């Protein structure tokens, strides 16, 4: 599916300039809105539509009336609780100053939570293979300012619009303290976030031997997996599973130190 970029219904000069910049950065066509509804534009352009607005960037996948946009989602409440007790941080053994590679960035809720925990001396890189998701989330992380306690942590996340296996293969051994994978669940679950509008465009690949070997080589302390509680991948790839009663997903870890 091709992607085009347009503006708000009544664009200001700033929004027009922003949309033109996005077109150049993503190498996609800029199409004048001409006061058309998103539904009308979907019919006319047969494309996913990025809409530049004053306050945020929205993506309307073809046929969807609800937009996908950046929001901290679960990071908003997880970062208000003691971070050392967050299940991802606890199982990873992440400490202040650690480096963390998120192989499946998605909405970046996990990456934001970890970024807040490791602090300014830490390093967070997030790979997202869907270029539209990577772009919307990357821009959102840089400009979202409604939760001041998270602004710095969000800005520190470096987004890479690449497949994580390709990225891992460029890394030296022990490049990151913790490497994390949260592939799309094969079973549909109800989501509290606006990810549902983009779900069908997300990369649905599951863990493979190649991915695991590359992750284990590049991780210094641990490789961590989040998956559906029915997933057999924990046992298949040698993770120690942390059972979380009454939750739809579990975490697993392979520790090296
Ligand atoms: C379940 S979501 C991750 C949610 C994320 N942990 C969060 O906190 O929002 C999975 C995301 O990873 C992306 N993805 C899946 N496999 C990938 C891969 N091999 N390389 C890069 N991105 C991948 C998908 O496109 C999707 O956006």
Automatic annotation (TrEMBL):
The keyword Methyltransferase applies. One of its GO terms (molecular function) is methyltransferase activity. The lineage of its organism: Bacteria, Bacillati, Bacillota, Bacilli, Bacillales. InterPro entries: 16SrRNA_methylTrfase_J, SAM-dependent_MTases_sf. Keywords: Methyltransferase, Transferase. The keyword Chloroplast does not apply. PANTHER family: RIBOSOMAL RNA SMALL SUBUNIT METHYLTRANSFERASE J. One of its GO terms (biological process) is methylation. This is Class I SAM-dependent methyltransferase. Its EC number is 2.1.1.-.
């Amino acid at each position: 599916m091709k992607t085009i970029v347009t503006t708000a219904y009544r664009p200001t000069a700033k929004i027009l300039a922003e949309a033109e910049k996005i077109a150049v950065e993503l190498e996609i066509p800029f199409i004048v809105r001409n006061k058309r509804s998103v539904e009308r534009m979907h019919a006319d352009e047969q494309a996913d539509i990025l809409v530049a607005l004053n306050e945020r960037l929205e993506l309307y996948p073809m046929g969807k009336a609800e937009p996908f946009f950046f929001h901290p989602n679960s990071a908003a409440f997880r970062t208000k609780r003691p971070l050392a007790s967050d299940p991802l941080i606890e199982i990873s053994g992440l400490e202040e100053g650690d480096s963390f590679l998120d192989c499946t960035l998605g909405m970046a809720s996990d990456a934001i939570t970890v970024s807040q925990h490791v602090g300014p001396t830490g390093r967070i890189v997030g790979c997202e293979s869907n270029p539209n998701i990577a772009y919307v989330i990357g821009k959102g992380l840089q400009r979202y300012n409604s939760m001041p306690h998270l602004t710095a942590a969000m800005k520190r996340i470096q987004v890479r619009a690449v497949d994580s296996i390709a990225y891992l293969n460029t890394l030296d051994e022990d490049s990151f303290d913790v490497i994390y994978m949260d592939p799309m669940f094969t079973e549909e679950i109800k989501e509290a976030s606006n990810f549902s509008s983009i779900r069908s465009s997300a990369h649905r690949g599951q863990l493979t031997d190649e991915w695991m070997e590359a992750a284990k080589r590049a991780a210094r302390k641990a490789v961590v997996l989040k998956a559906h509680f029915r997933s057999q991948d924990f046992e298949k790839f040698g993770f120690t599973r942390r059972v979380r009663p009454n939750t739809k997903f579990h975490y697993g870890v392979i520790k090296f130190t």
